[in-house]
Amino acid sequence: MELADKIILLTGGTAGIGREMARQLKEQGAKVVLTGRNQERVQAMRDEGFEVIVADLSNAAGVDALIAELGDKDIDVLLNSAGQLVDHDFRDGEPNADAADDCIYANLNAPIRLTAGLMPKLRNRPKATIVNVTSGLAIAPAARTPIYCATKSALRFYTLGIREQLKDTNIRVIEALPPVVDTQMNDGNPMKKMPPEECARQIVVAIERDQDEANIGMTKALRIAETISPGLARNITLRF
User: Is 148 a catalytic site residue?
Assistant: First the structure.
């Protein structure tokens, strides 16, 4: 897809990988609309010249409010990048069930609801793209983050399903699978982390090239291991 002048809705675009994608997409000439909920980060991106809609995507009301706020605006690309990580480790105590619910909604339900709500807009464009940012942990889980892994795995299968449904339409469906990236979400994670700028670059390239799947960084090796033996891939990731 040629990105110049394309209208892109990028959720979670005020921090981390999303923020870097926003900047790179803007450099390519795209018109990027961001979502975020931290007021300081929202204002910082507005100061950079971005249109930012304040949206809480951890519940249905927040997603519906975002769709309503978009009004009659055309959308060429829906880039579902917003995500949450929640502690859910029984070795460290009793997890917070409400926090798990918020994570499940933000990581899985919100992209599904946005896709359904914005489908008429996407169908009306000459060429459109849906990008779902999952994770290498959608392939094989880490023991300490089972909620996050479960949501990303579910979003992966949702992506595969709708790609098949839409294969003969104007809509391309892309999955991006980042490795561990150096963002606030991964503070305290001892694993080697990819710079968010490089992760963002590879996702933007995948959109430009109309790739079905972007396995980024160490996710490439994990995909190879999973092809050889799913058990091997799980043994690699479950330790973390």
Answer: yes
